[in-house]
């Protein structure tokens, strides 16, 4: 098994961990929400159940990404992971809008003088546990995504953190209702509205990045500069130009032109391009796609 597939399998295991955590939390939240008289907790449980959809998208996309290049996908299936990242980003934006909408509606209820249900202490304990679990899941998932270069996994990590954020709003509301009385439940929708803007911002940033990858935008300047530095480190390589870069899932593609001395024969020129290609793969990963066009240095 190659290194890339090992990383993908590790990412799948991390995502499956998220599935287990979401199923456990949503079940507990639903039970405590019903018996602990907390509508906010029931809403949080439904939210956790919905996370299973994005987890499934990630797992399916990672399984497809593992497939090798074929006749209909000459560059492999890496863009499936970018598509998954896009879908998770959209889900994150929808979560942000949903939290804002619920917070706004609850705020209107409070302003109209309606007092919401006073939850039990069990609900308070569980929501604290939920925040801790989701934050830990975010950290584990994001770290794994950074290590493997998976934009889909990092997007899903932020989805986990959005759950922690929404649970913080629920915690504020439940705490206010328990310790200050039901009339202070307005703290929940107020916190939810504020947190929804943070979630929307993250979702839009991730969506922009994913769309850029789907549209094959050029890689950041610092990566292009590193490519030029590697190319010019090979002494016989001169004047690298027409550098074109793009991302294919967790891998990148590099297309560039170099000039070599006219006194070199075709074998020597080919060897130079092979050395450059290997250096680039050593730095950016074994699945980096490299195309080098050789020109005479007149």
Task: Explain how this protein is built.
It is a single chain. The chain is mostly helical. The protein has helices spanning 3-35, 39-65, 78-111, 121-148, 151-180, 187-214, 221-232, 266-284; strands spanning 238-248, 251-261, 289-297. The chain contains eight helices and three strands. The chain starts with a helix and ends with a strand.
Q: Please give the share of residues in helix.
A: over 70%
Q: What best-fitting shape do the alpha-carbon axes yield?
A: elongated
Low-confidence stretches: none
CA-atom Rg in angstroms: 25 Å
Largest sheet: 3 strands, mixed
Return the string of H and E elements: HHHHHHHEEHE
Number of helical segments with 4 or more residues: 8
Strand content: 5-15%
- Biggest sheet strand order reads 1-2-3
Attribute tags:
single chain; 298 residues; mainly alpha; three-stranded mixed sheet; 8 helices
């Amino acid at each position: 098994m190659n290194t890339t597939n090992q990383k993908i399998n590790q990412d799948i295991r991390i995502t499956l961990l998220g599935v287990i955590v979401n199923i456990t939390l949503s079940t507990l939240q639903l039970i405590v929400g019903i018996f602990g008289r907390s509508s906010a907790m029931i809403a949080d449980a439904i939210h956790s159940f919905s996370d299973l959809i994005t987890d499934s998208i990630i797992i399916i996309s990672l399984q497809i990404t593992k497939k090798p290049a074929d006749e209909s996908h000459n560059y492999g299936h890496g863009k499936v992971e970018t598509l998954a990242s896009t879908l998770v980003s959209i889900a994150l934006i929808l979560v942000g809008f949903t939290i804002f909408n619920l917070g706004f509606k609850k705020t209107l209820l409070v302003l109209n003088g309606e007092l919401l249900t006073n939850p039990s202490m069990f609900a308070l304990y569980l929501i604290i546990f939920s925040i801790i679990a989701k934050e830990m899941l975010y950290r584990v998932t994001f770290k794994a995504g950074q290590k493997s270069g998976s934009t889909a996994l990092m997007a899903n990590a932020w989805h986990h953190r959005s759950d922690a954020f929404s649970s913080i709003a629920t915690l504020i509301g439940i705490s206010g209702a328990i310790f200050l009385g039901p009339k202070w439940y307005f703290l929940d929708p107020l916190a939810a509205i504020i947190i929804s803007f943070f979630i929307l911002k993250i979702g839009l940033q991730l969506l922009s990045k994913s769309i850029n990858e789907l549209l094959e935008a050029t890689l950041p300047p610092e990566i292009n500069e590193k490519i030029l530095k590697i190319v010019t480190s090979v002494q016989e390589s001169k004047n690298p130009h027409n550098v074109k870069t793009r991302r294919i899932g967790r891998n990148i593609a590099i297309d560039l032109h170099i000039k070599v001395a006219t006194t070199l024969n075709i074998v020597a020129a080919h060897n130079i391009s092979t050395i450059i290609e290997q250096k680039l793969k050593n730095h950016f990963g074994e699945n980096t796609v490299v195309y080098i066009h050789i020109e005479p240095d007149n």
